[in-house]
Amino acid sequence: MGALLEQYEESQHTQLRRGELVEGTVVLVDREEILVDIGGKMEAVLATSEIQNERGEPSLHRGDHVSAVVIVPENAEGRPVISINRARAEIGWRDLQTKKDAEEVVTGEVVDHNKGGLIVSVDGVRGFVPLSQIVELRRGGTEEEVEEKLRSMRGQTLYLKVIEMNRRRNRLILSERAAAQERRAQQKDRLLAELQAGEIRHGRVSSLTDFGAFVDLGGADGLIHLSELSWGQVQHPSQVLHVGQEVDVRVVGVDRENKKIALSLKQVEENPWNRIEQKYHVGDTVPARITKLAQFGAFAELEPGVEGLVHISELSDERITHPKQVVREGEDVSLRIIKIDPSRHRLGLSLRQAEDAGEYDYGGGYEAWTGGTSYAFSGSTSEHDQYEQPAEEHEAQPEPLEAVHVMAADQPEAEASEPAANGTARVPEH
Questions:
Q1: Which fold has domain 103-181?
Q2: Measured between alpha carbons, how far is 419 from 403 in angstroms, rounded to an integer?
């Protein structure tokens, strides 16, 4: 029986190979070594330096179960030497290969850095994250700025994606950018599934473009088109927002198929046209600013989001061929309101009546609007395009308003009988 046992133990020794993964139970812990029962009546030696805590004391106790890798099948005392750290790395390599095949995101702790990037520990395996694959690292920074940023990231836990691994060469390359893109895509899918048109969301402005602003809603970016930034005229998003600004926005559209989100900043606020009739009345003389000139007239803004048209016939008593002969863009003027149409967001304004208001009283019964011509809404998102010039006015100078001008009572009758410059008969006041 004794011979058989010795033969069995010898066979167990011969079966152990360098790099083999074994399981065992701690049977002895002292300052110099730890003995682990790995079966077959064999006790393997584990160096205490592998499992010491911050105070230099062993972190294992008798009865603890461990996984280890054989680094020496048999030492001078006839015992195998094992390593827990190498076992963790071996298990980590296997897990990393599985996660790489499944294209999963892994987590790693930054343990060091060099000029090329970050050194991280992932599942017990040391890997490398190149500078180009670090999210928070700005391009074009100086060497000192890069060094400071890398140093500040030590101890951080990063989400990473395995982009290259070679167990034999002990090579593991990871990417934070790839992981961030994948996680953001997953978050975007969840956000798209739950977003509903009409709801208010809080976000942060992530970027500005000529056509609008992108807002991060927490996993996905939505676009605020230029026309949805304000009720007033906006030439560039920077007039209203800046990158990093936190805002509340209304979801106006969700295109789940194309993964696009349309947002509005102005719809969070009250539409100024909803109170236009309470604030303004026909016959009022109000301050305004000329915003744009067109062949058929000038547009003027009374307040942000409230804009009206001064038809060319309402700019001057004299015949003119273009509004620039009377006003210029950006000029502050006083105008008289001659028509209000809240449902169509349109105002008819007059410069010449505001100038003559002190001498002539037209009252609120003036029915002509923009020269007696109806202007149709063109469907454009621009306030300036709400008035479409009639076909005949594209080719010729629009005729002034056909109206009778009232003269002062003391004007000579002979002068009153002469035709006016615009061909309209002028009569004395009766």
A1: OB fold (Dihydrolipoamide Acetyltransferase, E2P) (2.40.50)
A2: 13
Q: How far apart are the C-alpha atoms of 249 and 271, rounded to whole Å?
A: 15
Token pair recorded at residue 338: 């001659």
Q: Could you tell me the residue ranges of all domains in the chain?
A: 2-88, 103-181, 196-267, 272-398, 400-430
Dihedral sign of CA atoms 59, 62, 64, 65 in order: positive
Give the SS3 label for residue 92: helix
Q: Encoding tokens for residue 353?
A: 């009546």
- The domain 196-267 belongs to what CATH superfamily? Nucleic acid-binding proteins (2.40.50.140)
Percent of the chain at pLDDT > 70 equals 77
> Residue 297 has what pLDDT?
93
CA distance 391 to 380: 18
Cα 71 to Cα 29, 84, 222: the distances in Å are 20, 10, 56
The beta strands (E) that lie in 90-225 are given as 106-114, 117-122, 125-130, 157-166, 171-175, 200-209, 212-216, 221-225
Question: So what's the pLDDT on residue 52?
Answer: 64
Q: Which of 34-48, 72-86, 150-164, 390-404 has the lowest mean pLDDT?
A: 390-404
**Using one digit for the tens of pLDDT, what is the confidence trace for 344-367?**
888 999 998 888 764 444 333 333
How far is Cα 225 from Cα 272, in angstroms, rounded to an integer?
19
The tens digit of pLDDT for each residue in 107-120 reads: 999 999 998 999 99
Q: Tell me the C-alpha distance between 95 and 354, whole Å.
A: 81
Measured CA to CA, the distance from residue 35 to residue 22 in angstroms comes to: 14
Distance (Å, rounded) from C-alpha 279 to C-alpha 274? 10
∠ at Cα 170 (33, 172), nearest 5°? 120
Count how many Cα atoms sit within 13 Å of the Cα of residue 126 in the half-sphere of its side chain.
Answer: 9
Cβ neighbours for 18, distance < 8 A, ≥ 6 positions apart: 70, 71, 72, 73
Which residues make Cβ contacts (< 8 Å) with residue 378, sequence separation at least 6?
385, 386, 387, 388
Specify the amino acid at residue 239. Q
Q: How far apart are CA 64 and CA 25, in angstroms?
A: 6
Per residue in 171-223, pLDDT (tens digit) is: 999 999 999 888 888 888 888 888 899 999 999 999 999 999 999 998 789 99
Residues 364, 368, 374, 376, CA torsion sign: negative
Q: Considering the domain 2-88 in this protein, what is its CATH number?
A: 2.40.50.140
